[in-house]
Specification:
heterodimer, A: mainly alpha, 12 helices, globular, B: alpha/beta, Alpha-Beta Plaits, six-stranded mixed beta sheet, four-stranded antiparallel beta sheet, 14 helices, about 25% strand, disordered C terminus
């Protein structure tokens, strides 16, 4: 089982790496970091603040775009092109293994991608500040949270991909990302409402993926440390959410007729 | 091997409607699900296997893709699954491969359930018009599939190379498949179906997209796999291919099984007609009197008459000054069987006549 999961995950990774669009996005992200350097140099006294904000936001957004772009086609494209037939039909591969393998492959791709973008970002930071500070360690926490965002968005894109067309999957996944970015605001709004609206808003605010608590970029840019319990809670939250969404994806995919 | 296959194929039979109930009842109480006089387990068994789809958005209409298919394929057979386009061949294969779920009935492959991973490791499948990850080379693709099929790492490279060599793709093994023609993809498709050395191979239209040389090579490959003792189940609408390589064939039309037969028997049946070939005089009037029609080509005449008219025809041709070259009983072809099973006057069968010619 582990061997098959690894094979599917590696195949997904290899496909993404050979996809020219992926390279373009990385190059573009690096250009953004370069632009951050330029902005940093013309922002007297707040170079680090501008660089951290722009650099980490670029890593996050480009990762999210790649996750949605690739994730929405992970299953639907395989069904449409019928590449899935030779994997599932006459191989001892269970459908859930295919889904989880694809998920791990894309998360792995995004992690490698984020690693290289982060390396570029830290190189830019060193160039600008000449030495690392103690507060820079919190940047790693922010990057870890960005990786957790990738896990969430990948599971969502993959879930939609099991039953919807790539275009609709992209719309659904991106909408949930945008709504999830304002999850904390939704909870605040729910507290201000009464009766049925309060119930609906509270329910929705807990149902949508909470991307807002995974965004600490502004905090670390101002050198405010991230509390340890937030790291633990965010990790547990993302793990639970991703497991639930992946289970839903497997359930949908198990029932599908692959015509 | 041939003798063994001959023995087995006479045991194999399509279970009658009456026998079907008893057969299915046997399944329920967990008794042996196949003929008790069989010593070996059938490679494929389907019991009243059916699939229907509900089509239409507002007012759903039921469309039967496959109607109650009960069929047994023995181990070691080359089994041809024939039918015109839309007959339900691909649906059957997708059901057997677990890609779509049956609406009714059940099936077993190598005695195991359709979702059994142990069984899946022992089967190979070539889908119709295969499409692969085109960013990969055939070697990378086959290595991936061999890994998924559980081929040990130490054997993987050897088996991949051997499979590619077997389909004549060794020289293109390192080229990305996005540059491949349809015929090359078909060859890679066959290679991936045999890379893990399966016992049973399903081929959906394996000759599709191949040139005459390629078709001949695939036929030879099927025969060589057969000689190795593998069971092959392949769907086609090219009857000459089926006639050449199959032990038995089943004919399917509009989702319904119309008949199953042993190819050797079907093509050796005498049709009750005799073909006469002669030169010299046309003897048109004499032949017409016997109910025949004379065809001429390069000063050679030909007609087909009933067996009862043989003596009179010989006398008539000789009497008219003709010189007989041959008098041959006309034997039935697979095409005759196929068309008879499709049903006379059936529009699909008329289309098939054009396809098969």
């Amino acid at each position: 089982m582990i061997g098959r999961l690894w094979a599917i995950a590696y195949s997904t990774f290899r496909e993404a790496v050979r996809d020219r669009v992926l390279y373009n996005l990385i190059v573009f992200a690096l250009l953004i970091v370069g632009a951050a350097l330029l902005v940093g140099q013309i922002s007297i006294g707040i170079e680090r603040l501008v660089l951290v904000n722009l650099g980490l936001t670029s890593i996050s957004l480009f990762g999210i775009v790649i996750a949605i772009f690739i994730g929405i086609g992970l299953v639907s494209k395989e069904i449409e092109k019928r590449t899935l037939y030779t994997v599932l039909a006459a191989r001892p591969v269970r459908r859930w293994e295919f889904i989880i393998g694809k998920f791990l492959g894309l998360v792995g791709t995004l992690t490698v991608n984020a690693f290289f973008m982060s390396a570029g970002f830290f190189a830019a930071l060193l160039y600008l500040t000449h030495r690392f500070q103690r507060a820079d360690a919190d940047l790693l926490v922010a990057i870890y949270f960005i990786l957790l965002q990738f896990v969430l968005i990948t599971s969502l894109a993959l879930f939609f991909s099991t039953f919807s067309s790539p275009l609709l999957s992209a719309v659904f996944a991106f909408s949930l990302f945008v709504i999830g970015t304002f999850a904390d605001d939704m909870r605040g709004f729910a507290k201000l409402t009464e009766g049925g609206t309060k119930w609906v808003m509270t329910g929705m605010s807990y149902l949508v993926p909470n991307f807002s608590s995974l965004n600490v970029i502004s905090q670390v840019a101002h050198s405010v440390p991230v509390p340890g319990h937030l790291v633990l809670l965010n990790t547990l939250y993302v793990l639970a959410y991703a497991v639930a969404v992946n289970c839903a994806a497997v359930l949908v995919f198990e029932k599908r007729n692959l015509k | 091997m041939t003798a063994l296959v001959q023995t087995r194929k006479f045991h194999a039979q399509v279970i009658s409607r009456a026998g079907q109930k008893a057969h299915l009842a046997g399944m329920k109480v967990g008794t042996i699900a196949y003929n008790h006089d069989e010593l070996t387990m059938p490679a494929i068994e389907t019991f009243a296997l059916a699939k229907h789809y509900n089509i239409g958005f507002w007012r759903k209409r039921r469309k039967d893709a496959l109607k109650s298919l009960t069929l047994t394929v023995e181990e070691g057979e080359v089994f041809g699954y024939l039918g015109p386009n839309g007959a339900g061949k691909t649906t059957t294969l997708r059901l057997l491969m677990g890609l779509v779920y049956p609406s009714a009935g059940s099936a077993r492959i190598l005695g195991k359930a359709l979702d059994d991973p142990a069984m899946k490791a022992q089967i190979g499948f070539l889908p119709e018009q295969p499409y692969f990850y085109d960013h990969l080379t055939p070697k990378e693709l086959l290595t991936y599939y061999a890994q998924l099929s559980g081929v040990p790492g130490k054997d993987r490279a050897r088996k991949v190379d051997a499979s590619l060599a077997r389909v004549g793709m060794s020289e293109s093994a390192g080229i990305q498949m996005r540059k491949f023609s349809k015929g090359m993809l078909q060859r890679v498709g066959i290679a991936q179906a045999i890379v893990h050395d399966p016992k049973l191979i399903f081929l959906d239209e394996p000759m599709s997209g191949l040139d005459p040389v390629g078709r001949r090579e695939v036929r030879d490959l099927i025969q060589s796999l057969h000689e190795e003792g593998k069971t092959i189940f392949f769907s086609t609408h090219i009857l000459s291919d089926a006639e050449t390589v199959c032990d038995r064939v089943a004919v399917l039309n509009k989702g319904e099984l119309r008949g199953v037969g042993v190819v050797a028997d079907l093509v050796s049946e005498v049709s009750g007609q005799v073909e006469f070939v002669w030169t010299g005089a046309a003897a048109t009037a004499e032949i017409a009197a016997l109910g025949g029609k004379t065809h001429e080509a390069s000063e050679t005449f030909r007609t087909i008459l009933t067996q009862e008219a043989t003596d009179r025809a010989i006398d008539a041709i000789r009497g008219a000054g003709g010189k007989l070259i041959s008098v041959t009983p006309v034997r039935a072809t697979l095409e005759d069987y196929f068309l008879s099973k499709l049903g006379a006057g059936d529009r699909d069968s008329q289309n098939m006549q054009e396809v098969t010619r």
